[in-house]
Amino acid sequence: MKPLKTLLLVTCCLTLAASHPRATPAQPVDQAVQRIRESAPYKQAAAFAESDYDRFVKELIALTEIPAPPFKEQARGKAYLEMLRQSGLSDVEMDAEGNVMGVRKGSGAGMVAVLAHLDTVFPEGTDVTVKRQGTRLAAPGIGDNTRGLALMLSVIRAMNAGKVVTANDVLFVGNVGEEGEGDLRGAKFLLKKGKYKDRIKQFIAIDGGEQGGITRGGVGSKRYRVTFKGPGGHSYGAFGLVNPAFAMGKAIDKFSRLQVPSNPRTTFNVGVVSGGTSVNAIPASVQMDVDLRSESCAELSKINDAFLSIVRQAVDDENSARSTREGKIEADPKLIGDRPCGETLETAPIIQLTTAVVKSFGLSPHYEISSTDSNVPMNMGIQAVTIGRGGVSGRAHAPDEWTDIDRKTAVQATQVAMAVIVAVAGQP
Amino acid sequence: MKPLKTLLLVTCCLTLAASHPRATPAQPVDQAVQRIRESAPYKQAAAFAESDYDRFVKELIALTEIPAPPFKEQARGKAYLEMLRQSGLSDVEMDAEGNVMGVRKGSGAGMVAVLAHLDTVFPEGTDVTVKRQGTRLAAPGIGDNTRGLALMLSVIRAMNAGKVVTANDVLFVGNVGEEGEGDLRGAKFLLKKGKYKDRIKQFIAIDGGEQGGITRGGVGSKRYRVTFKGPGGHSYGAFGLVNPAFAMGKAIDKFSRLQVPSNPRTTFNVGVVSGGTSVNAIPASVQMDVDLRSESCAELSKINDAFLSIVRQAVDDENSARSTREGKIEADPKLIGDRPCGETLETAPIIQLTTAVVKSFGLSPHYEISSTDSNVPMNMGIQAVTIGRGGVSGRAHAPDEWTDIDRKTAVQATQVAMAVIVAVAGQP
Fold first, then answer.
1. Using CB atoms and an 8 Å cut-off, which of residues 247-276 of chain B contact chain A?
2. What is the ipTM of this complex?
3. Cα–Cα 20 to 30 A to A372, which of A7, A187, B110, B354?
4. What would the pLDDT profile of B3-30 be if each residue is shown by its tens digit?
5. What are A143-191's pLDDT values in tens digits?
6. CA atoms of B4 and B348, how far apart (whole Å)
């Protein structure tokens, strides 16, 4: 990992603007990227990417039409496993969580993980037929993140065509559980339980939009389903007993009054409420789903503590306000989502190199803080970045999601991603 | 209506305890009741009731086994219509609301309505097969209020057998919509739109338990489904927009702090909450079902106004607390239940006579305030009482509802009800 060590020393001295990296004179990172792009293997790989366009589109459509609802990625996972095998990777396998992966050997001991997630947000039964209008393909999940999966296959084939050699092994992964209640389970398993957990030193997720956007911070989130329970009873006959809907109302009211910073961006939400059986019965149980997020680990921790304290206080208030002779109100905040917060410093080599690659293609790099699989490594102190899958896309998470496969942009996306991977994996 | 007028003057001077009418020396009402009970027609009718017991039981079982869910009383209504016809009433018919009824002519111009409701609380598909263990019959709805329906048929036959003559016409009604969301629609139609609406001067509902209980007050209730709507949005991306769950939480919190008197008993409840689609979306809509009740019309009006004001205030608070750039929170409190409050004074002839009848059978009369079809006439200023259907019953509104048909008690119940009806209808 010598080249990277050198770069680290150099880039520590760079100062980049938080959201728009400042244009600077050519620096060592830029020179390193330039060397890669001018190397014969990379050039041959980049040329191959041009010829691989039709296959990329074909695979994008084929993968999109294999449904991959949350927790039900298996069919797409098996198909992707076979495609990884055909791309010539070694050690192709599916792990116990459902991630599929294969290794492209390097010459060193380290390993870079490159991920694109298999899952979509769409439930079983969603029509995933791809509709084409010119260069615009529409289908649920086609942009987020099936395009990332298709791009990754094209990158592997191009690297092989150019016989590109890297210092570190590159582990290419189609992972499960990025969306919603999947709760990053694929990335968590990979880095905390999988067979490569101790070898992965850098982490690249292909899960952004256009390639100018470089995600270097992970918005952390905690999600709770809080159930308030009580003895229940007849609304008239048992009036005076504690009411869990009152306790929940008190909690929501106090929660709504929390003050949070806008920078680092910190947010809270009550998204779903339910409970009770009849207008004339005191409910035995009501519940609410709550979402807490922050760009900052410290702020997330602060709002999390405040929220749990509010719930306890609301329960105590209701138990003091009415009779508990038939039973008390109890609240059970169950953690239903836990996306770790974290960030990779702007000065970290993985960010510097990605920035240099983006600039070398004449694109405008800008940093983003988001919630992607990279949250997991960032939280663990592993250098991570989420890069774009390329192309203009829209309506992510909506049934009319679409992505534009304009040839030039699509080919460039493959070339950008490949350059980032090669730069981060280093050269022997 | 001379006898009643006389009684009114006399009974104005009586003072009865609110819940337990005080034992007093024999009064004109007692003497009037005694005259009825000692008359040859009444005695013959009472004797007939003894011989009618088996038929009463048979009809109770037959009627119980015809399902009569809320808003779906028609099958039972048609069967009961036929039974009313066979009992010898005139003008037997079903009105536009689904009430079935027939008239037993008197000699005067006035009319007493006697009601037993057809509907049960049980939904379609409930097993209504009657199970018998000794004198205990179990089936959903058998006590509340099928027993009232069966008793009414036995009363009509007994009056006919004894050739009992009354001053006022007696309108016997099997009515719809007493339970739950039925919202007293049968009684409302009868008194406000039906063909006899201007003739009914007294109102007797057979819908209580044992005959000691005399319901002379109607607990009024108002029920709302309040929908809070807003623009919705992503929990993170659109954070800062108004949230309808926050508005509802504020409303519930304030509502839970309302102070209400325990006498006259006044209650409030949030029974059901629902809304929102995802933990990570600001809901576009949430709702709650609210129940307000009071023994007192003034208190019901007061809490109703307070509640509606709280909802408005909570909406305003939320619209002030967060951004309305994508739209404001709006709340729509929809009245889904409206049971009028009301009472019949203890001194009213209908209450005095019922009390005297109950005492004449050696039973202990006590006054109750409840929610029955009598709420409607009480609210309109029409003298009304709800009397017992007799017998020991239990588990009303539960699938294992039961009623005991012990012969002596059952026959006495018919005799008590008949005496009340004859006393209230007066004699020519």
1. 248-253, 255-257, 265, 267-276
2. 0.80
3. A7
4. 222 233 222 222 333 455 654 556 899 9
5. 999 999 999 999 999 999 999 999 999 999 999 999 988 999 999 999 9
6. 10
